[in-house]
Amino acid sequence: MAKGMFSRMADILRSNLNEALDRAEDPEKLIRQMIREMEEAVNKETASVGTAVANQKRLERRCHEQAKQATEWERKAVRAVGAGEDDLARRVLARQVIFECASQDLAPAMEESKRTAQQLRDQLRELKGKLEEARTRQDTWMARHRALKDRLRPFHRFPVSRLRGFGVASSVS
Fold this sequence. Notes:
- This protein is an all-alpha fold.
- It contains five helices and no strands.
């Protein structure tokens, strides 16, 4: 007798807890929260892409400036040789080599920056696609949830103790 009573009490407690959890866990709210989180991820990724592109452009500018300076110093060396100032030409060529090396040193970083920026753009495009897909499906998911909720509504008022005779009480809890 006591065992049956404790079993029924456990069924009632489980049922009440499950019902409370079902009420607290609104799928529509969860879907909206998921979409908000995806939007935040897109915003963060957009900022990352912006930073990466800015870094890429900065490196490209520095590399091109260094190469331009090297070209300018080379012209100056040619003019110095033409004027018969070989000593000046050597010093000018030394400066040209410094700028040429700096330009060559920046080239790998510039290429890596381009690859990184492109990867981030691709990831952003993919994230935006998933967000759009989620937004498109949001209405469908919510409609399905409402339909299921409406279909199950009559059973929410049906006491669990009444289901025991049909062999359903164990599956409800």
